[in-house]
Automatic annotation (TrEMBL):
Assigned EC number: 6.3.2.19
Bias (Polar residues) ranges: 166-209
Keyword Transcription part of the UniProt annotation: no
Protein name per Swiss-Prot or TrEMBL: ARAD1D41844p
Species whose genome carries this gene: Blastobotrys adeninivorans (Yeast)
The organism's taxonomic lineage, starting at the top: Eukaryota, Fungi, Dikarya, Ascomycota, Saccharomycotina
Spans through the membrane: 217-235
Length: 238
C-alpha cells in the first residue's frame, strides 16, 4: 500500500505526464493500485525497434520516490526477457544511480536482457501490434484506445495484402492472353509474309510470261515487216 507521500508524488507525476507527454512513451497508473503503472513504448525511428509497440509495467515501492520502480517488459522485443525484472541503471537494482533515461535502445548487457539479431528485433517490432492485441489482456484493459488503433492498423495491412495479391493474380491472368495473342499475331504475320512472297512470285512469273508474249508479238511483227520490205524490194528489182 502506498504511503501518503508516495501516493501524492505519483498522482502529481501522472498529472505532469498528461500535461507534458514524454516522446515515444505512454504511461498510466492502474485504477486498482497507484503503485502499479503500465507503459507503452513506441520504438524510436532509425532503430531496429522503429514502429514497434512495447507494453510493460512499473511497480513502484511504497516509499517511492526514495527507491525506484521495478521494471518489466511484457511484449517480446528482442532486447529483454518478457515478464522478468530488468536489471538496469534505472531499475530497483541500482537505486543510487536511478534516473528516467531511455533504456530501450541501449546495448547494455544486464540481467533480464537478451541478445538477438537486428533482423529479429525488426521482425518482432512488426509483430508487436498484433501480439499486444491478441496475446496481452492487460494491454487491452489499460490501453483500449491503442487496442482499437491496432485493430484498424492490422485490418488495413490485411486489406492491403489482399489487394496486392489480387493485383498479382489479375496481372498474371492478363499476361497469358497477351502472350497467346502475340503468338497468334506472329502466326498470322508469317502466313501473310508467305502469301505476300507467293503473290510477288506470281506477279514476277506473270510479268515474265507477259514479257515473253510481248516479245513474241514483237518478233512476229518484225518478221512481218521484214517480209513486207523484202517483198517490195524483190518486186522493185524485178
Amino acid at each position: 500500500m502506498a504511503t501518503k507521500a508516495a501516493h501524492k508524488r505519483l498522482a502529481r507525476e501522472y498529472k505532469n505526464i498528461q500535461e507534458s507527454p514524454i516522446p515515444y512513451i505512454v504511461a498510466l497508473p492502474s485504477e486498482e493500485n497507484i503503485l502499479e503503472w503500465h507503459y507503452v513504448i513506441t520504438g524510436p525511428p532509425e532503430t531496429p525497434y522503429e514502429g514497434g509497440q512495447y507494453h510493460g509495467t512499473l511497480m513502484f515501492p511504497s516509499d517511492y520516490p526514495f527507491k525506484p520502480p521495478a521494471i518489466r517488459m511484457i511484449t517480446p522485443s528482442g532486447r529483454f526477457k518478457t515478464n522478468t525484472r530488468l536489471c538496469l541503471s534505472i531499475s530497483d537494482y541500482h537505486p543510487k544511480t536511478w534516473n528516467p533515461a531511455c533504456f530501450m535502445v541501449s546495448d547494455e548487457t544486464t540481467a533480464g536482457s537478451i541478445t538477438t539479431s537486428s533482423s529479429d528485433k525488426v521482425r518482432l517490432a512488426k509483430e508487436s501490434h498484433a501480439w499486444n492485441l491478441y496475446q496481452d489482456s492487460r494491454f487491452l484493459k489499460h490501453f483500449p484506445e491503442l487496442a482499437e488503433e491496432n485493430r484498424k492498423l492490422i485490418a488495413d495491412k490485411q486489406a492491403e495484402a489482399k489487394t496486392v495479391s489480387e493485383n498479382k493474380t489479375s496481372s498474371a491472368a492478363h499476361k497469358a492472353p497477351i502472350s497467346n495473342n502475340t503468338n497468334n499475331a506472329n502466326m498470322v504475320t508469317k502466313p501473310n509474309s508467305t502469301s505476300a512472297n507467293d503473290s510477288g512470285n506470281k506477279q514476277n512469273r506473270s510479268a515474265q510470261s507477259s514479257m515473253s508474249t510481248t516479245q513474241k508479238i514483237l518478233w512476229v511483227c518484225v518478221l512481218l515487216v521484214s517480209w513486207v520490205v523484202a517483198s517490195r524490194m524483190f518486186s522493185s528489182s524485178s
